[in-house]
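fyi for ur records
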Amino acid sequence: MHDTSSTDTSSTDTSSTEAEADVAGARDPATDTTDGAAAPGPAYRLRSPAAQAERLIELGVHEIAGIAADDVRAFAEKAGADDDVLLVVHPDRAPASALAPLLRRDDKPGFVVTDMRDVDAFAPSGIELPDSPLYFVTGIDRGDHMSNWSPEEALPALTEAGRTPLVLAEGIHWVLQQPSVLERNRCFMTIGSRLRKANGALDARTPAIWISNGTGRDGRERRDAPKVGWCWWGNRHTWLGFASTTGRESRQPPGPTEVI
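which gave:
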């Protein structure tokens, strides 16, 4: 899915984010015996699709996407009330830069780090999203069992397990619907989104969502706020898992059968 030889380790801003300042104390990779075949972490039961639709409408996501509220409700009805799926607006219609400020934690609004002004240029990489303004994401996992793995190490393990990483907009949707999934020392990366540079190489930054400590360029006023930032492709963090899914569904009716 990804050729590491084409990763460009230079970015638009080569300075590090405040990732290391937000949580300190990484394990020594040499002593990390985490089993790559370990099962995904605890289940995260989502509210019903209908309730998720109302949440998106309440936040105004439908207006950002240019979708009528009743259309969001109608799409949610395609899933059963007991279906444990995440309702997502396609990132082409609701980009990360517009969604991040809707995040909340302790009444603090979410934000995108200052050295990720190109956040909306991070697109699905090696992942085909449904060709639909709205779709469902199934079998979501935060990837706690892969904490202290680098994105470079995690991606092939997810692929081998038959899973794909979340794209950034999907991760934001998850936190919008279930804010408690973002915890101190238990946050996650969304490495399904990557930035391809003009020279064809992939930018070495990989998106993540975590909780700010109000350090550095974040500013003290943003302490405890949800934060969309990035970490390097080859770096490990003990407090970042890798959010992933078993699949994506538009649940569109099949097209007409051609009669010959």
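The CA atoms of residues 96 and 120 lie 6 Å apart. thats all i got for now
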